[in-house]
Specification:
The complex is a heterodimer.
Chain A: H1 2-9, E1 35-39, H2 40-54, E2 58-62, H3 77-81, E3 86-88, H4 93-105, E4 109-113, H5 124-131, H6 134-137, E5 147-153, H7 168-171, E6 178-180, H8 185-197, E7 202-207, H9 210-213, E8 215-219, E9 231-234, E10 239-243, H10 247-260, E11 265-269, E12 272-274, H11 278-288, E13 291-298, H12 303-315, E14 324-328, H13 338-341, H14 345-356
Parallel strand pairs in A: 2-3, 2-4, 4-5, 5-7, 6-7, 10-11, 10-13, 13-14
Antiparallel strand pairs in A: 1-8, 6-12, 9-11
Helix pairs in contact in A: 2-8, 4-5, 10-14, 11-12
Chain B: H1 17-22, E1 31-35, E2 41-43, E3 51-55, H2 56-81, H3 96-105, E4 111-113, H4 119-124, H5 129-136, H6 170-183, E5 190-195, H7 202-213, E6 218-224, E7 227-228, E8 231-232, H8 233-236, E9 251-255, H9 259-276, E10 279-284, H10 303-313, H11 315-325, H12 331-354, E11 373-377, E12 383-387
Parallel strand pairs in B: 4-5, 5-6, 6-10, 9-10
Antiparallel strand pairs in B: 1-3, 2-9, 7-8, 11-12
Helix pairs in contact in B: 2-3, 2-11, 2-12, 3-9, 5-12, 6-7
Classes of the chains: A alpha/beta, B alpha/beta.
């Protein structure tokens, strides 16, 4: 199913920066489509406004969301929908997520904000043991599908140990939840609406570096981007690059540089990490014969390992070189050493070249 | 504020003020008794007396150290705005009385563990200005070798266990330290500090239960500055009487802007904890800055409120008035002291600016014990080898 829709949804992108490209919407766009230039937090804000507007039983809560949140993603929601639907919680992540699970179990849509992904760990038990297994262990009597947990993740230049982490790998190991990571404002709005309306609990990581930095033309209407469908955002023949979130911007720079050296790179945005679109990546690797995965999280045990293992199983005979992973280092996210830790454009470019010349 | 009428004056001892002052801190240990500004409010225990034993030396050193702390935080503010300090910086100005009063009541064997607003606590534990600024700017001579930053100051030889970024996580740690102290029969206690925002974390109550069950010498200190980042206490807590939140654990509410009240409370708490187990201290204090340098601090509270507290409850002003009324120094001498402090801070900053950044190889040190665990090799350190013991 995914492959059929995948072929339908895959669109060519005019070469250029991923977050500045204009893409045609593949879902419900009828007639004139008014777009507005928005950054990531405004796009997410719009998505939340639409979500609350279209479903009267949806709620947004978390620490400091009332005044708009520390990244302004929830601006205007409390004023428009009232304090009964958009409210602040005390400082207790475990309590907040547990509370959200309960709310969702009663058929509501609970959009929970965890202020930074680094703080999601107190809630880890609730997510893994409660949210992910609720439907399964109750034999489908109950479910918390209405739960969506949003958290800003990723490096921001000076975040240090506790404002820069990428914990997506921990959650990708849990059957029962979905993990979604957008790469740009337009994607974020569509993916967030899909996540909120998806009948499964979703953990939605937002690249905080892009909150202000990424600006894109975002359609103003209500649209959804399907989950579990990867997108080829740049076509090529020599090597497939797979990534998600803010890292795609870095990877695209590497692709442009590689092109100057005659290497044609195909870049895929995974969008949904769990369950991930294996078919799209497989088809691409069967075409190019080489794979490179890049993410900010430490390389050992990162999600790149799962992609590598799966592709190896499926495309072994078509691979021309070992799968390359250009990721964060195996250290805690450092303070002053952040530039050394990060998988930078040059590291990716080096890896592209060595993979192609294997 | 009530001033004690009985003073060394009645004993007829004349102190040559200028001589005492020429070395900045008087070595005169003439005892003074100070009354705290407010009585203590107690929960499940008898509050200590309002009369605090002190000395002229202590009074002057309180002033000096608090002025130093204040100056250090203001300087950190400017350094942050100049982008020499990056990342997150949470300033303590307004709350100095808590750090100072606590230090005065305890020894370096007693442990302190706190959250991320830790610059002044570190200074109080004996840290130097140079180490503070070097760490803030990420230089190798910082107290954590430049690898921790503002939120992660530690000082092992003074039993200062840091400096924690995750809210509330330090409290169970503190109770564990207390257990170790009790087990080793050290006659020492642990002060686990947290804020009013952290008071709603579940792990706090888990730690309290364990401490009470096993009679651990842990003292939980809630520095209630009334705002958890931008959220006022009444909007986050059903019961903002944090000293009562221990339920079966006794508590004491203390005027956190009065260094002597803090000293008395900590002394009382230490005696209590060594005999009877955990106790909660709620320090009613205030921070002038916002939550961190990214927070202006004025979107959730009025400027009138901030300046009101500054005028009426400022801890340094209080000590200054005490010093002046006890004739321990003149206005001019105090101003000179402040100038000296300013210079000291500026010198430390200049020295710290010259300190080099840590070596790139430091990125990989201390992930595990040296020589064991994993080591990274290769041009981009992707090759990871496990070194087994």
């Amino acid at each position: 199913m995914a492959s059929l829709l995948g072929r339908f949804c895959r669109k060519l992108v005019v070469p250029g920066s991923a977050h500045g490209a204009r893409m045609v919407s593949t879902t419900s766009s009828c007639g004139s489509e008014t777009v507005k230039s928005l950054n990531l937090y405004s796009a997410i804000n719009q998505a939340l406004h639409i979500a609350l507007e279209t479903d009267p039983r949806s709620y947004v809560f978390g620490e400091d969301v009332g005044f708009g949140g520390v990244f302004r993603c929830t601006t205007g929601l409390a004023e428009r929908f009232g304090k009964n639907r958009v409210f602040n919680t005390p400082l207790c992540e475990q309590g907040i997520v547990g509370f959200g699970i309960g709310l969702a179990a009663m058929g509501n849509r609970a959009v929970v904000e965890i202020q930074f992904a680094d703080y999601i760990y107190p809630a880890f038990d609730q997510i893994v043991n409660e949210a992910a297994k609720f439907r399964y262990r109750s034999g489908n009597q109950f479910n918390c599908g209405g739960l969506t947990i949003r958290a800003p993740y990723g490096a921001v230049g000076h975040g240090g140990h506790y404002h820069s982490q990428s914990p997506e790998a921990f959650f990708c190991h849990v059957p029962g939840i979905k993990v979604v990571i957008p790469r740009s404002p337009r994607e974020a709005k569509g993916l967030l609406l899909s996540s909120i309306r998806d009948p499964n609990p979703v953990v939605f990581f937002e690249p905080k570096w892009l909150y202000r930095q990424a600006v894109e033309e975002v359609p103003e209407h209500d649209y959804m981007i399907p989950l579990s469908e990867a997108e080829v955002i740049r076509e090529g023949n020599d090597i497939t690059l797979v990534g998600w979130g803010a890292q795609l911007t870095v990877m695209e720079q590497a692709c442009l540089d590689a092109e100057k050296e005659g290497i044609s790179c195909e870049l895929i945005d995974l969008k949904t990490l769990l369950p991930w679109d294996k078919e799209t990546v497989e088809a691409s690797v069967k075409k190019t014969g080489r794979l490179l995965i890049s993410h900010e999280a430490p390389v050992t045990g990162g999600f790149g390992a799962e992609i590598s293992a799966t592709i190896l199983e499926r495309c072994f005979l078509k691979l021309e070189a070992p799968v390359s992973r250009v990721c964060g280092l195996d250290t805690p996210f450092p303070l002053v050493f952040e530039p050394f830790y990060m998988p930078t454009k040059n590291k990716i470019l080096d890896a592209i070249k060595s993979t192609v010349n294997y | 504020m009530a001033l004690s009428r009985l003073s060394s004056r009645s004993k007829g001892i004349s102190r040559p003020l200028s001589a005492a002052f020429s070395r900045s801190i008087s070595t005169d240990t003439t005892p003074i008794t100070i009354e705290t500004s407010l009585p203590f409010t107690a929960h499940l225990c008898d509050p200590p007396s309002r009369s605090v034993e002190s000395s002229t030396q202590e009074l002057l050193s309180f002033f000096r150290t608090m002025a130093l702390m204040r100056r250090m935080e203001i300087a950190a503010d400017s350094l942050y705005k100049a982008k020499l300090i990056r990342g997150f910086c949470h300033l303590y100005d307004g709350q100095e009385a808590v750090a100072i009063g606590m230090e005065a009541a305890i020894t370096k064997k007693d442990a302190i563990i706190t959250a991320y607003r830790d610059h002044c606590i570190f200074l109080g534990r004996g840290g130097s200005l140079y180490e503070v600024f070097a760490e803030l700017m990420g230089r190798q001579d910082g107290c954590s070798k430049g690898k921790g930053g503002s939120m992660h100051f530690y000082k092992k030889d003074s039993s200062f266990y840091g400096g924690h970024g995750i809210v509330g996580a330090q409290v169970p740690l503190g109770c564990g330290i207390a257990f170790a102290q009790k087990y080793s029969k050290e006659e020492a206690v642990t002060f686990a500090m947290y804020g009013d925002g952290a008071a709603n974390q579940g792990q706090l109550f888990e730690a309290l239960n364990i401490s009470a069950l096993w009679d651990l010498p842990s003292i939980l200190v809630c520095e209630n500055n009334h705002y958890g980042m931008g959220t006022a206490e009444w909007r986050a807590a059903k019961s903002p009487s944090y000293y009562k939140r221990g339920d079966y654990v006794p508590g004491l509410k203390v005027d956190g802007m009065d260094a002597f009240a803090v000293k008395q409370a900590c002394k009382f708490a230490k005696e209590h904890a060594l005999k009877n187990g955990p106790i909660i201290l709620e320090m009613d204090t205030y921070r002038y800055h916002g939550h961190s340098m990214s927070d202006p601090g004025s979107t959730y509270r009025t400027r009138d409120e901030i300046s009101g507290v500054r005028q009426e409850r400022d801890p340094i002003e209080r000590i200054k008035k005490l010093v002046l009324s006890h004739d321990l120094a003149t206005e001019k001498e105090l101003k000179d002291m402040e100038k000296e402090i300013r210079k000291e801070v500026d010198d430390a900053i200049a020295k710290a600016k010259d300190c080099p950044m840590p070596e790139p190889s430091e990125l990989f040190t201390n992930v595990y014990v040296k020589g064991f665990g994993t080591e990274s090799f290769g041009a981009d350190r992707k090759e990871v080898k496990a070194a087994l013991p």
